[in-house]
Design a protein that fits this description.
By secondary structure, this protein is mostly helical. It folds into two domains: about 1-385, no CATH class; about 395-510, Transcription Regulator spoIIAA (2-Layer Sandwich), CATH 3.30.750. Helices cover about 60% and strands about 5% of the residues. The chain has 24 helices and seven strands. It has helices at about 1-10, 15-25, 25-35, 45-55, 65-85, 100-115, 120, 130-140, 150-170, 175-195, 225-250, 260-275, 285-290, 300-315, 325-335, 340-350, 350-370, 370-390, 440-455, 470-475, 480-485, 495-510, 515-520, 525-530; strands at about 40-45, 280, 395-400, 405-410, 425, 465, 490. The strands form three sheets. A three-stranded antiparallel β-sheet has the order 4-3-5. A two-stranded antiparallel ribbon has the order 1-2. Strands 6-7 form a two-stranded parallel sheet. Helix 17 packs antiparallel against helix 18. Mean pLDDT is about 85; it is low at about 530-568. It is found in: Membrane. This is STAS domain-containing protein. Its main location: membrane. It is a multi-pass membrane protein. InterPro entries: SLC26A/SulP_dom, SLC26A/SulP_fam, STAS_dom, STAS_dom_sf.
Length: about 575
């Protein structure tokens, strides 16, 4: 599967097919030794190949030797970035990119990749671009040069590939067809060329024979201009490789070290660049096939590397007659699985906000290019993070009848609330960047102090229920615990509510006794209570259709808020 895919992806990257095989040689060995996943298949992939082509074609023509040197330099830079992120454990930064942004980006990129391969089907050149409009214009403007032989051959081979993929996925006994599809496409195309000798079908041509020689990457003067692309490729590599590696690790019942994963990928790219490889990363399709084939250790990668080495030593003369449309069919077949329209439909039903992110990212990637698409998608993703953090959901709570459980009164309208007491819960939003992190910083501490001062001036008492250890420690260091009063911190919401109710009752009782001095200093809250009827019972403090009485015999469990059978 790797040999034909490697050659196809190298052409997508604007390189000679041999460099795809180089990318699937040394990096495969290195990752098998230093990587942490037992099933991840590394090497060239479509998305990274498109990124390489997109940036380098703007610097130099793909026929120039400098183009190849810059692709190799890019592998070194990506490897260094991955190693740094692995050593410093910075993989968490990718969590700021939501799944909807990734899906939108890969969907748009897949469409661009497929259109860029149309020239091998149509028989004429198409402009090299990462934007859909120039590609479509170029395809339409060159229709007068359309050639039937490559179109018929390419379409037929693509149909065979899709049929084999479908059959391999739907029938377990034909699972091997999914992996053998690319090889079948190459053999079928080469056989047809050998039999009919069509002059209008372009071939791969002569490929150098032998293993890649050791050489240090050159052209470091261009490194500064390649940094943004190196960072983008690193991000894509983390998302693809670590994502599929984690899924495979969970499926096979072992733990994955993300930092070691990044370091292994980085080292694979660094050492690969010394042997003429362009950026390599984990492949979704080949990793899935590797897992389904029964791979249990990194030895599968070493065996793959040995086979690629044998192909470089002995089989390259056979590759000369592979038709370009066969390789294009392999690329199109591979990227069709990246068009994630099902995700868009799912997001529309479940979360309109994430659907908007998906739409923005895919649209900007299609019409404005890959770099702008990624920047806009990531920017929108981070903006949503900031918005969620700055506007957390705040729930007013009530007690569920017959329990000491307090829940959102909008979600549970039967829950009881109490006159004179408001129970509020500030929810930490569950979203892709924090995955429920309970935390309070210095700004929040100051805001809590200001809130206490404002409420104190209005004779409103704050009580805090069940803060976690880190939050409580921060509040203690900041003096907020002493400011509010230690007696107003509770383990349970139920305890806090009962103490507050007792406080309300004590104020009410005090108001019943005439006290001139007290009357002169009545607080806002006390004046409010005085306006109520003097015979206000404890039961009237609680709202709802049922009236639950407060027991006079308060026990250590602070349970008298619960109804007794005799008082229902």
């Amino acid at each position: 599967m790797l040999v034909p895919q490697a050659m196809s992806y190298a052409e997508l990257a604007g390189l000679q097919p041999i460099y795809g095989l180089y990318c699937g040689f040394v990096p495969v060995f290195v990752y098998a030794i230093f990587g942490s996943s037992r099933q991840l298949a590394t090497g060239p992939v479509a998305l990274v190949s498109l990124l390489v082509s997109n940036v380098l074609s703007g610097i130099v023509d793909s026929s120039d030797e400098l183009y190849t040197e810059l692709a190799i330099l890019l592998a070194l830079m990506v490897g260094i970035l991955e190693c740094i992120m692995g050593l410093l454990r910075l993989g968490w930064l990718i969590r700021f990119i939501s799944h909807s942004v990734i899906s939108g980006f890969t969907t748009a990129s897949a469409i661009v990749i497929a259109l860029s391969q149309a020239k091998y089907f149509l028989g004429y050149d198409v402009v090299r671009s990462s934007k859909i409009v120039p590609l479509v214009k170029s395809i339409i403007s060159g229709m007068d040069k359309f050639s039937w032989p490559p179109f018929v051959m390419g379409s037929s081979i693509l149909a065979v590939l899709l049929f084999m993929k479908h059959l391999g996925k739907s029938r377990k006994q034909f699972r091997f067809l999914q992996a053998s599809g690319p090889l079948t496409a190459v053999i079928l195309g080469t056989t047809l060329v050998k039999i009919f000798h069509p002059s209008s079908i372009s071939l791969v041509g002569e490929i150098p024979q032998g293993l890649p020689s050791f050489s240090i990457p050159k052209e470091f003067g261009y490194a500064k201009s390649l940094i943004p692309t190196a960072m983008l490729i690193t991000g894509v590599a983390i998302l693809e490789s670590v994502g599929i590696a984690k899924a495979l690790a969970a499926k096979n019942g072992y733990e994955l070290d993300s930092s070691q994963e990044l370091f292994g990928l980085g080292l694979a790219n660094i050492l690969g660049s010394f042997f003429s490889a362009y950026p390599a990363t984990g492949s979704f399709s080949r990793s899935a096939v590797n897992n389904e084939s029964g791979a249990k250790t990194g030895l599968s990668g070493i065996i793959t590397g040995i086979i690629i080495g044998c192909a470089l030593l002995f089989l390259t003369p056979l590759f000369e007659y592979i038709p370009q449309c066969s390789l294009a069919a392999i690329v199109i077949s591979a990227v069709m699985g990246l068009v994630d329209y099902d995700e868009a439909i799912f997001l529309w039903r479940v979360d309109k906000k994430d659907f908007l992110l998906w739409t923005i990212t895919s649209a900007t990637t299609l019409f404005l290019g890959i770099e702008i698409g990624v920047l806009v998608g990531v920017g929108a993703s981070i903006a949503f993070v900031i918005h969620e953090s700055a506007n957390p959901h705040i729930a007013v709570l009530g007690r569920l009848p017959g329990t000491t459980v307090y829940r959102n009164i909008q979600q549970y309208p039967e829950a009881y609330t109490y006159n004179g007491i408001v129970m509020v819960r500030i929810d930490a939003p569950i979203y892709f960047a924090n995955i429920t992190v309970t935390y309070i910083d210095s700004s929040a501490v100051q805001a809590l102090k200001d809130l206490h001062q404002e409420y104190k001036s209005r004779d409103i008492q704050i009580a805090i229920s069940n803060p976690n250890r880190d939050v409580l420690l921060t509040l203690s260091k900041a003096g907020v615990v002493e400011l509010i009063g230690k007696e107003w911190y509770f383990v349970r919401m139920h305890d806090a509510v009962q103490v507050c109710l007792q406080q309300v009752q004590s104020i009410k009782q005090a108001l019943k006794q005439p006290n001139p001095l007290l009357d002169d200093k009545l607080s806002f809250f006390q004046r409010l209570l005085e306006q109520r009827e003097d015979d206000l019972s404890a039961a009237e403090l609680e709202s709802g259709d049922k009236r639950l009485l407060i027991s006079k015999n308060t026990d250590s469990q602070l349970e008298p808020l619960l109804s007794r059978k005799s008082s229902n």
